[in-house]
């Protein structure tokens, strides 16, 4: 199997994916109250699957058993990550949810790193995530155990998504892997969403928002990340994702009119510094083969 590097540098692809996800998140904030968690996730994954299948037209014949196990694991991580995160948002403030969820990628980055500067950057990024998310401003008395468990589950699935996405990208050409994984995830969650939201999913405004979320939160970022992970190490990718809370703060300011506190600006600076440390180290390192 031949491996080609993307025309755009892999870190740039990840940054584009982050920006797309946060725009989609701002749009999703207006959809959740209308059709609930299951309906929102089902609509997002189903529309994304249809778009990816139409574009990629993945090759299904001749696949090995390991190919199917790999892409099924990717689909499970992807689907459960989305559902757990949306469910946690109904119980916890978004800043706390994002902070807890980010434990997964940060631990993955620390476990897969062999450089001391990378390990230090994980700590800096973790501090920045806490500041940007606003978790320090939230009273613990407002939290519940179910919400905490859901956020932790989303974090575990996020780490699993990083690993299985890289493995799927190595076994499937182009966007075949993400198209098949999205179809499998949608096939499991769509019936649940139909039962939960019913005819509300067919409302014109809901469908339009769902299509926008599917593009911004699924098709564009997952495709870019799948391509980037063919050449980007998992620990580098994990720390780059620490920009997610900072990007969310910017999206909140631009799209939703939310203000940025000095504490969050400091957190944004910390995660940018951490990502810069990892990127500078990446210039002299080679991603593993296979």
- Helix count, DSSP H or I runs of 4 or more residues: 12
What is the general shape?
A: globular
Low-confidence runs (pLDDT<50, min 5 residues)?
A: 283-290
Summarize the main sheet: none
**Oligomeric state as shown:** single chain
* Strand residues, percent: under 5%
- Give the total of domains: 1
Mean pLDDT: 80
Beta-strand segment tally:
0
Rounded to the nearest angstrom, the distance between the terminal CA atoms is 9 Å
| Radius of gyration over all CA atoms, rounded | 18 Å
Question: How would you describe what is shown here?
Answer:
By secondary structure, the protein is mainly α. The chain is 76% helix and 0% strand. The protein has one domain. The protein is built from twelve helices and no strands. The radius of gyration is 18 Å and the shape is globular. The relative contact order is 0.22.
Brief summary:
The protein has 290 residues and is mainly alpha-helical. It is 76% helix and 0% strand.
List keywords for this structure.
12 helices; single chain; 290 residues; disordered C terminus; 0% strand; mainly alpha
Draw up the topology in text.
Blueprint: H1 10-28, H2 32-56, H3 65-89, H4 94-101, H5 103-112, H6 116-133, H7 145-171, H8 176-197, H9 204-228, H10 234-240, H11 243-254, H12 262-282
């Amino acid at each position: 199997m031949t491996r080609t590097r993307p025309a755009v540098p892999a870190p740039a692809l990840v940054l584009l994916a982050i920006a797309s996800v946060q725009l989609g998140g701002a749009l999703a904030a207006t959809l959740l109250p209308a059709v609930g968690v299951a309906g929102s996730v089902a609509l997002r994954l189903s529309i994304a699957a249809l778009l990816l299948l139409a574009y990629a037209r993945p090759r299904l014949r001749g696949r090995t058993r390991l190919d199917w196990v790999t892409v099924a694991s990717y689909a499970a991580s992807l689907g459960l990550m989305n559902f757990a995160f949306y469910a946690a948002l109904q119980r916890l403030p978004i800043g706390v949810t994002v902070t807890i969820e980010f434990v997964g990628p940060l631990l993955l980055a620390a476990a897969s790193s062999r450089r001391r500067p990378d390990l230090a950057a994980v700590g800096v990024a973790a501090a920045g995530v806490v500041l940007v998310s606003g978790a320090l401003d939230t009273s613990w008395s407002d939290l519940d155990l179910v919400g905490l468990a859901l956020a932790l589950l989303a974090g575990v699935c996020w780490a699993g998504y990083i690993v299985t996405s890289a493995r799927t990208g190595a076994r499937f050409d182009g966007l075949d892997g993400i198209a098949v994984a999205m179809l499998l995830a949608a096939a499991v969650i769509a019936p649940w969403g139909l039962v939960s939201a019913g005819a509300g999913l067919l409302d014109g405004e809901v469908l339009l928002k769902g299509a926008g979320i599917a593009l911004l939160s699924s098709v564009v970022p997952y495709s870019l990340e799948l391509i980037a992970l063919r050449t980007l190490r998992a620990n580098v990718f994990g720390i780059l994702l620490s920009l997610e809370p900072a990007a969310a703060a910017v999206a909140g300011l631009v799209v939703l009119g939310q203000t940025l506190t000095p504490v969050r600006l400091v957190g944004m600076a910390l995660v940018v510094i951490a990502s810069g440390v990892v990127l500078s180290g990446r210039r002299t390192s080679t991603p593993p083969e296979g």
